[in-house]
From TrEMBL:
Organism: Azospirillum picis
Name of this chain's protein: Protein-glutamate methylesterase/protein-glutamine glutaminase
EC top class named in words: hydrolase
UniProt record similarity statement: Belongs to the CheB family.
Domain notes: Contains a C-terminal catalytic domain, and an N-terminal region which modulates catalytic activity.
Length: 372
């Protein structure tokens, strides 16, 4: 179920150079009573006219098109007429890299084009496509000029980054778990780049396919003083490292304090996802208990709510991103309503809040239940 309900249908412009894809997407979107396709366009020139004429709620945008590539057109949209955009990307390595750039530029979400048999493949993705379009229409964010500026995707972290924060022995042995979905690329980039050296181990689950998570880890690694990598099965979990769940696999924290390791597996999807935030949070609750901090960020659905509740019940500190700064407030809202969130803070304060909670850890398990 979508996190957003509308009294009138969400008005959509489809932009794709393939006539077949345009027709398939129109059939899927018009088949949902929540959505109305108001125009289609085969290239950015037609799209510009269609957007000006129809003033849609959402644009679905192909990445590779004639006359102007999707990224260049996205930049123009975010500069001249900011609006929610859902990218339609290919499964290629180049497509994954470009899609990550698009999300950093301000695109709300993306859908992967099937590599073969478009008709069947897109039909199988119908619910994902419609839910993402509806969620995009409900975005409550300031679409500003900063969305138009392409941020560096590689290179060393900028000088003058976050200063080391001394942590006591309890904090050094702690584990941080973070989960995100829709809007998570931008949110995680902001949080991870602001974390200081000397952090305890950080494990993250974000709803991304396999072609994306390794590249996403590399992009974060270039921006952070911490070592960011895609998690590997059986590897030791070390302070100063960030481990991202690989697409298509669940990530769990295994072992005990002083000998934690990553456990990966391909068991059934949870809340419709693999990797699942619930699976990660649940394993951290079981293995680390009060030696952990959990953070749930922007995302559609309720993945992570149950797991974060398990963490809080086990004595962990828990943080949720607040509604105003979320791209989609679904996951943090579900966690808050379940009583899993100890405190909500805006995205720019997530990193400092996390560091403050870690620095404030006294003897393990000794903190006020409310944390307020």
């Amino acid at each position: 179920m979508s996190d957003t309900a509308f009294a009138t249908p969400v008005r959509v412009v489809i932009v794709d150079d393939s006539a077949l894809v345009r027709q398939l997407l129109r059939t899927i979107l018009d088949g949902d009573p929540r959505i109305q396709v108001v125009a289609t366009a085969s290239d950015p020139l037609q799209a510009r006219a269609a957007i000006k004429e129809t003033d849609p709620d959402v644009v679905t945008l192909d990445i590779e098109m004639p006359h102007m590539d999707g990224l260049s057109f996205l930049e123009k949209i975010m500069t001249l007429r900011p609006m929610p955009v859902v990218m339609i990307s290919s499964l290629t390595s180049r497509g994954a890299e470009t899609t990550l750039t698009a999300l950093e530029m301000g695109a709300v979400d993306f859908v992967q084009k099937p590599a073969v048999d478009l008709s069947v493949g897109l039909a199988d993705l119908a619910r994902e496509i419609t839910d993402k379009v509806v969620a995009a229409a409900g975005v409550k964010r300031r679409l500003s000029a900063r969305c138009a500026a392409l941020r560096p995707s590689a290179g060393p972290a900028a000088t003058g980054g976050p200063a080391p924060v001394p942590l006591n022995s309890c904090a050094e042995r702690a584990v941080v778990a973070i989960g995100a979905s829709t809007g998570g690329v931008e949110a995680l980039r902001e949080v991870v780049s602001a974390l200081p050296p000397g952090m305890p181990a950080v494990l993250m689950a974000v709803h991304m396919p396999a072609a994306y998570t390794g590249r996403f880890a590399a992009r974060l690694d270039a921006l952070s003083p911490l070592a960011v990598k895609e998690a590997e099965h059986g590897e030791s979990v070390l302070p100063g490292h960030v481990y991202i769940a690989p697409g298509g696999q669940h990530l769990e924290l295994a072992g005990a304090e002083g000998a934690y390791r990553c456990r990966l597996h391909r068991q059934d999807k949870v809340q419709g996802h693999r990797p699942s935030v619930d699976v990660l949070f649940g394993s951290v609750a079981a293995a680390a208990g009060s030696r952990a901090v959990g953070v749930i960020l922007t995302g559609m659905g309720r993945d992570g709510a149950d797991g974060l509740k398990r963490m809080r019940d086990a004595g962990a500190r828990t943080v949720g991103q607040d509604e105003r700064s979320c791209i989609v407030y679904g996951m943090p809202r579900a966690a808050r309503e379940l009583g899993a969130v100890e405190r909500e803070v805006p995205l720019p304060r997530i990193a400092s809040t996390l560091v403050g909670l870690l620095a404030g850890l006294g003897r393990i398990g000794e903190h006020p239940p409310s944390g307020l």
